């Protein structure tokens, strides 16, 4: 069913697709951002204020929410609560692929990655114009799974990413591999860490490279923080 759901999202933004891959249920007191949500709307639905939502989630900018992001909507124990009528910033626009991602979670990495390909890093993560890292090499360079998991997307239906794979590792983390010359695995297939899954190429880009992304709860995260030094 998961692979079928991914296919239905072909043509929407990368953020929406990746968030859908990590849509596990959230616990009481938390809410997963959906398309069209704003912090103001979420606050009203949970009978609290934008000020509270921003404080509980460390949001310096209430406009910076993404589809798939998990927000605390109930106060942590011992936390003071501002009333819903308290002064608050203007309503945030709908969450979209252009919203700046939140910083990487301040916690020990729960997923251990290996480098997905050999080559030179030609573009680093900045969270805005670059949601991952780009690794340059020659056509056909081996692309491997950075961690074990299940392939939840294999195709070229997302404009700008060429032949792409998305591998889900658990309920929180997934990785994406774009611009490949060839895809060597299929949707629904289990892959092991280090297994060859694609060949580097230049589909939907102007040079041979692998565009590699890591998502935590649907949010773009700097992969280099999880990769070993080399």
From TrEMBL:
Molecular functions (GO terms): metalloendopeptidase activity
Region annotation Disordered: where it falls in the sequence: 82-107
UniProt cross-references to Gene3D superfamilies, sorted A to Z: Glucose Permease (Domain IIA), LysM domain
Pfam families linked to this entry: LysM, Peptidase_M23
Signal sequence segment: 1-19
Keyword line: Signal
InterPro entries, A to Z: Cell_wall_metabolism_enzyme, Dup_hybrid_motif, LysM, LysM_dom_sf, M23ase_b-sheet_dom
Bias (Low complexity) ranges: 82-98
Similarity comment: Belongs to the E.coli NlpD/Haemophilus LppB family.
Name under which the protein is recorded: Peptidase M23B
Organism: Caballeronia choica
